[in-house]
Design brief:
about 70 residues, two-stranded antiparallel ribbon, 2 strands, binds FE2/S2 (inorganic) cluster
Amino acid sequence: MIVCVCAGVSDREIRASIQAGARTLGDLGRGCRAGVDCGACRDMLRGMLGARCHHRSAEAAATTKTGT
Ligand code: FES
């Protein structure tokens, strides 16, 4: 699915950028050009970044609980 129509960037490309270390809208813009034009996709990009951060927080909490 195309998330950023301006740059023609798909959700897969965005997830790949996040997997590769993108943590901010600026990182995504530099990495895959998403969100750098009209800005209509930025709420969705923030949601994808937030979901990744939430996932990482859950991983950290699980690691803390298990001590692994
Ligand atoms: S839709 Fe992403 S910058 Fe326009």
